[in-house]
Specification:
The protein is an all-alpha fold. The chain is built from 3 helices and no strands. The protein starts with a helix and ends with a helix.
Length: 50
């Protein structure tokens, strides 16, 4: 699925436009503070799960 989207840049642009319309004047605030790095265990497990 993701490869199909990446192969069609117009879908990405449509998604960006839809997000702008849905958010209006709101700005998305990431709940994870900037500079926080994943723990070693989480990084290890994500590699095992893939």
């Amino acid at each position: 699925m993701a490869t199909a989207v990446l192969a069609q840049p117009e879908l990405i642009e449509q998604a960006k436009q839809e997000l702008k319309e849905r958010l209006g004047n709101e700005i998305y605030q990431n709940s994870i503070p900037q500079g926080v790095k994943p723990s070693y265990i989480r990084k290890y497990l994500s590699n095992v799960i893939e």
